[in-house]
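User: Let's play a game. I give you a shape written as tokens, and you guess the letters that built it. Ready? Here's round one.
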């Protein structure tokens, strides 16, 4: 069987059962998401560091103005006053979503990936604004991620599009799902889909640093399917993490899942937001170069390539302009670690912190190379050209390969002579 033999039913509509997962900061670009929608599937944009995305996409200058406004705090280790302007946040989010939705063609959908861990020095109000502004701007669906989202529905329950926008939650266990469902029931709203993310995914992981290897996607997905059955709930389940071939996907759909969420194979497409030289690093990656570490200030383990520039050199914190990981008191574990070093008398140019990285800067500048476990298999999905460069793929090619491949085969693209 092929993945194309299945369809995903969500909110009374049929989709091709491929969801391209959200990849911040602007790795899952509007262009990538729009391709998924055009082909009948579902693509995600991400609102991680949305001001920076708006500045890049639309020439606004949100980040620069914020940096100037809070310049005086640049040497403080705690930054309670460095706040996001709520109207500007809504404006940036509105631009990002509405311009994407206006460009949408085809029968698929565009979703927004919304990470709770972006606490932005004002967790509840900023989250409410991000969700509301995305709904105002016409987003088809919102995937709640990187956090349990126990208060998220409560924040937006009075929004006029609360019941008409599709909502999904990413969980890594039936236990986390149960907590979310209890809260969701209080506002009379179930999620429309559940993404079950296993330990081989890219980005942050919902497992402990010492036990992630003990889990596998198949058994967590089965556990979630069983949980839903026992509770008489019919919510589509979408596994994610390490689904590398169409056949991998078919195996999940044959055992009760409704679609799959995939990301790593799309990081090396022309539409992905990674710079081309970083796409080549992903193609070149070896299995032994992939690590799960604890350098993210969010406290979640994260998978990345060991050669990521953020792991080689520390940068001065940049919370005046960015500050997406500041907690409700204006602190971040990277900030603390950085200023501990400065107080020891180490000069800014020589500070090197192994334990934490400035993720806001690292992700914005594409210097944190987060990836799924199977990044090292990407080289087998394309042609190596005579100058040693790997040929970039189109999102359409990868999408169709997932849909039509059989027996775990991966179709290589037509040689692109222009590269040679
Ligand atoms: C480069 C990259 C960045 C990611 N960023 C995010 C993110 O910002 N938020 C999120 O919820 N998941 C993120 N993910 C996870 C994906 O959305 C997806 O669920 C997962 O990677 C699927 O597994 P696969 O990469 O093995 O296909 C990221 C994954 C990758 C590869």
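Assistant: Ready! My guess for every position:
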């Amino acid at each position: 069987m092929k993945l194309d033999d299945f369809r995903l039913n969500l909110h009374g509509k049929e989709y091709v059962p491929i969801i391209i997962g959200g990849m911040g900061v602007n790795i899952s670009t509007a262009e990538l998401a729009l391709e998924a929608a055009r082909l009948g599937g579902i693509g995600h944009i991400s609102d991680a560091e949305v001001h920076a995305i708006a500045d890049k996409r639309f020439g606004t200058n949100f980040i620069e103005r914020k940096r100037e406004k809070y310049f005086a705090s640049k040497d403080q280790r705690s930054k309670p006053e460095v706040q996001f302007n709520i109207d500007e946040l809504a404006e940036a989010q509105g631009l990002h979503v509405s311009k994407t939705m206006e460009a949408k063609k085809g029968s698929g959908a565009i979703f927004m990936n919304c990470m709770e861990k972006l606490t932005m020095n004002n967790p509840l109000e900023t989250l409410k604004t991000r969700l509301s502004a995305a709904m105002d701007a016409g987003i088809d669906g919102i995937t709640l991620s990187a956090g349990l989202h126990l208060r998220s529905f409560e924040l937006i329950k009075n929004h006029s599009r609360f019941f008409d926008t599709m909502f999904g939650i990413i969980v890594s266990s039936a236990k986390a799902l149960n907590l979310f469902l209890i809260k969701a029931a209080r506002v009379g709203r179930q999620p429309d889909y559940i993404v079950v993310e296993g330990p081989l995914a890219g980005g942050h992981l919902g497992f402990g640093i010492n036990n992630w290897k003990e889990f596998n996607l198949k058994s967590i997905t089965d556990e979630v399917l069983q949980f839903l059955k026992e509770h008489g709930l019919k919510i589509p389940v979408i596994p994610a993490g390490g689904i590398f071939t169409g056949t991998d996907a078919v195996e999940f759909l044959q055992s009760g899942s409704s679609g799959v969420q995939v990301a790593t194979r799309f990081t090396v497409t022309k539409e992905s937001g990674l710079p081309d030289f970083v796409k080549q690093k992903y193609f070149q990656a070896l299995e032994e170069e992939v690590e799960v570490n604890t350098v993210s200030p969010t406290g979640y383990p994260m998978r990345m390539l060991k050669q990521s520039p953020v792991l080689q050199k520390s940068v001065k914190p940049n919370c005046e302009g960015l500050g997406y990981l500041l907690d409700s008191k204006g602190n971040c574990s990277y900030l603390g670690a950085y200023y501990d070093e400065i107080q020891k008398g180490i000069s800014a140019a020589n500070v090197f912190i192994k334990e934490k990285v400035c993720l806001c800067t690292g992700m914005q500048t594409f210097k944190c190379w987060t990836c799924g476990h199977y990044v090292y298999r990407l080289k087998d999905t394309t042609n190596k050209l005579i100058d040693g460069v790997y040929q970039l793929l189109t999102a359409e090619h990868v999408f169709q390969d997932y849909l039509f491949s059989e027996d775990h085969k991966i179709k290589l693209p037509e040689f692109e002579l222009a590269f040679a």
